[in-house]
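From the thread on structure requests for the teaching lab: each student submitted one protein with a one-line request. Submission from student K.M.:

"Model DUF222 domain-containing protein from Kibdelosporangium aridum, tokens only."
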Amino acid sequence: MARFAELSPPNRDGIRVADGAAEEIAIETQVSPRVALAKLLQAQEMVNRLPATLAALEAGDIDADRTATMTKQTAVLSDDQAQWVEQRVLERGPRAEGRSSVLSSPPT
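Reply posted by the TA:
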């Protein structure tokens, strides 16, 4: 999906995906345009900010739910903070529980 977004760049400032991109994905994947947009933005986030999460997903080390949680939990962080959290979470393994200790001291 991120590759699709890259090949269909937006033609207006302030827009992250091209007009109609979510609708095209929605048709192909048989989900609503809103769900397709969320998945498209998540894919962009993993490619651009969370490459280790993407690699772990592709390797089968984590599932789609865990990648969704990672992108949601790091969305408000800077790139450096997001990568710091990503590294700590992935180090804990595919079934690690409890984020409080992981997030207790991210870099500022």
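TA comment: The mean pLDDT is 83. The helical segments are 2-7, 21-29, 33-48, 51-59, 64-74, 79-91.
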